[in-house]
Amino acid sequence: MDSHDSESKAEAFLAWLKTMGVVMSPKIALVSFQSASRGRGVVALADIEEDEGLFVIPRSAVLNTTTALHATDTAATPAILDMPSWLALTAIILAEGQRQDSKWAPYLALLPRELDSLVFWSEAELKELQASTVVNKIGRSAAEDMFSQHISPLKLGHSSVDMCHRVASIIMAYAFDIPEKASQDEPENAEEGDDLVSDDEEDEKTILSMIPLADMLNADATRNNARLCCYENDLEMRSIKPIAKGEEIFNDYGQLPQSDLLRRYGYTTDNYAIYDVAEISTVSILSLLTKEQFLGTKVTLPSLSREELDRRVELALREGVYEDSYDICHSSPDAPSIPDELLGLLYLLLLDAENLAAIESSQASMSSRSKLATALVGQVVAMVLESRAREYSTTIEEDRTLLQAGNLTSRHQMAIQVRLGEKVVLEKASQEAKLFEGSDKKMRLKQDSPSEPQSKKRKPEENAAGRKKGRMR
């Protein structure tokens, strides 16, 4: 697409917004950036104060099953309503895209034609992510099964698998979950206010929606300066801090690691590196602890039998600390890098039989984090993290060298940034675990005492003291 065609489409979109009742502040403008990777965005044409309205979008201008389904083939409506929300929206956009008289045409024409989200990567490109578990979350085959089961029977034109992937990826990257408009049968809230758009509201019904103009804002974790608020009849983008003339206006995706940023939106940025996560499967943890481990020159961790392992896993389930996997992250004032649940699982796996039986019979809750973080638990955590890091085929230093050398394709570079971020998380967490100092007196471990020549044997009192000194703190 040449720049003239792009600008004409942008002008048609802005004119369409007016016909749809969208009101834009004269202090903002939709612009195209010179860098193709940045696409479009919204910038301030004048200084904007905190909590100032930027634009208002009527709910009738939002594209979702409520506003657009009636325009599609009515025979397909029941089938579409039975689909998962993302698939229903995919069907609607595919249907609207082939209608010459679609009222959404100027908006759909401005959506991207190519994306870098992981579903479009080749097998060779995905291999560059190495041991990152994000590869297992792409769901390409599952999505194609859904397309075949739900989209194909609708017999929509231009609904090839590639087109379905493109539309579904646009929805994943651009759509919002917004609260549904209250029906006439429902009482109005006594306290009406502006609700931040979120998909974390468990009690509130939401509807997946494409919101023209709102989805043109780029996102930045550190420069977020606007938020979308929902009202009964419209949506409003408002500033959350002063914005100077010339500055870009940013939304925020939330605390996403770079792996999810790449999977969902097709890019990475150092601004989200603080949210990077390394995932460790419980299967790998249990596999390690069924083998005898030598944790030091004098300390051995005995292996667990299958019966002993099952008993401890059952207790971990009862105590709510057993999960299929655990996320290791950068530590912050709000959360440690090593989750309490992982410490709880390891604590139960490392307890001696006597103390394990005491917990089983007492029905008491787990100890506090300070008591879970014993020196032995820390050693085992570090062992688990270092084992996980070895699953990657390059080291932190090698990845940094590759990035500094340059000459990489954009996808190769993004893959390195993702896997490097995860390795850094593992390394820092391992260093933190080695500093644990809690008491190991309840732990199951063996200590090997070195043999001494008969002539150098100490007195019994000294020998006992010496054994005590050799124990882990």
UniProtKB/TrEMBL annotation:
Residues 185-201 have a biased composition (Acidic residues). Residues 182-201, 436-473 are annotated as: Disordered. GO terms for molecular function: protein-lysine N-methyltransferase activity. Its EC number is 2.1.1.-. InterPro entries: N-lys_methylase_SETD6, Rubisco_LSMT_subst-bd, Rubisco_LSMT_subst-bd_sf, SET_dom, SET_dom_sf, SETD3_SETD6_MTase. GO terms for biological process: methylation. Keywords: Methyltransferase, Nucleus, S-adenosyl-L-methionine, Transferase. GO terms for cellular component: nucleus. S-adenosyl-L-methionine-dependent protein-lysine N-methyltransferase that monomethylates 60S ribosomal protein L42. PANTHER family: N-LYSINE METHYLTRANSFERASE SETD6, UNCHARACTERIZED PUTATIVE METHYLTRANSFERASE. This is Ribosomal lysine N-methyltransferase 4. It comes from Cadophora malorum.
